[in-house]
Design a protein that fits this description.
With 457 residues, the chain is an alpha/beta fold. The protein folds into two domains: 114 residues, Fumarate Reductase Iron-sulfur Protein, Chain B, domain 2, CATH 1.10.1060; 327 residues, no CATH class.
Length: 457
Amino acid sequence: MSAKRLEPFKQDIYRCIHCKACKFSYSGSPEKSGPGEYKGVLYEGMLNSCPSGIEFGWEGYWNSGRMWIARGLLDGTLKPSEAVRDVLMPCITCGNCSTQCENWIDTVGIIEAMRATLVDAGIPLLDRHALIKQFATDLNNPYGRDKDKRTDWAKNDPDLKTQIGKEADEAYFIGCTAAYNQTNIASATTRILKSLGINFAIREDEVCCGSPFFRIGEVDFAKGLMKKNLEVFSKYKRVIFSCAGCYRTLTLDYKKHTGKPVPFETIHAMEIVANAIKSGKIKIKAHPDLKGKTFTYHDPCHTGRHMFLEEKQELMRGSKNMFLDSRKVKQIHELFDIPRVILNAIAKANGAKFVELYRNMEESFCCGAGGGVRAQYPDFSLKTSSLRLDEAEAVGAEIVTTECPFCWRNLYDANEKYQHPLKVYGILEMLDKFNLVEIQANPVPPPEYAEKAKPKK
């Protein structure tokens, strides 16, 4: 049996000392209110970090157990089987375990490589994973929807249909979830981009980014989708995303599997909006429905922690002294600031209050949707999302925001199923729904950003 997919991770696998630190996550501010609130007890502030471990309990479902499985598959003492598959698949690949790891082990990469090892060995996919693969084979998306209707949300909007196939230097990558299910996210994103004067195209020949299949071990199939998208989008200078998963996949996975960065800049739409706020091009307006409200933000794993972890890995690969260089890690926080620029501006304009969840940024607890879990284990997925909404209630939030259509879907559905009294919005959706964006003809940076906006001498 070949474990070639695991060979690149051999050093990481054997650096795991099974200390169990990966089982826990921390608020970083134990004086905050919420689950794990500090009450003068030594270990308050520590919470179980792994949704799979919380749900199933046994050691094999925690990352520490999965690293033992990786050793067995790598050295041949454990053979690929359906039993191994059934333990590895209820992992959302959120990466929280990797954040906690003092040895900086690439746990997500290892888990995905183990799943790919099982696929290589001929272990069949779970039924719903096999179904989404068939859908993507036939229809270019994992939802089984008509591939010719991928851009219907834009065709039915007179203000947006002109962007389809438009000659432009930039393109908007819709993603399957926003194209078919959360079309409100796609519409909001493109309306805002258009209001900012960005000349972008919407492509009807876009296909699934491949993220679900990279996650479940169907690497060769995912690479086929990757090839199609590179053929479509390589002509553009910049590709814009509203889906966290698509953004992560084209930015990180395509680079990993081609050995070079994609031939275009990748950027999430909320970064464009945040930059426009900081430069003064956008002024956020008030809306009576938001006045005095308390809202919070759920950091998607793919735009937050996964990008953070990649920067850590890059630091490790180029380091000659990890003792000194590891101190630089906490400086890698600019990407977490992006959504907070927008949310703080909304709060300021509306006399509202933006509060952080107990666990946030790289410590964020997952919404439960990723890693193939929502497709195969919907009940577990939504229970995980409900735990996240418990944190939102604990900090007094009335509105939960995020910026990922898949996170939106899971949080929204869990809010309904478990009867949480919350509203769920995407950040860009909220800007569009409440008409909060006012374009400024003569931009002046807000006072809090004015100093940084000054040209350097």
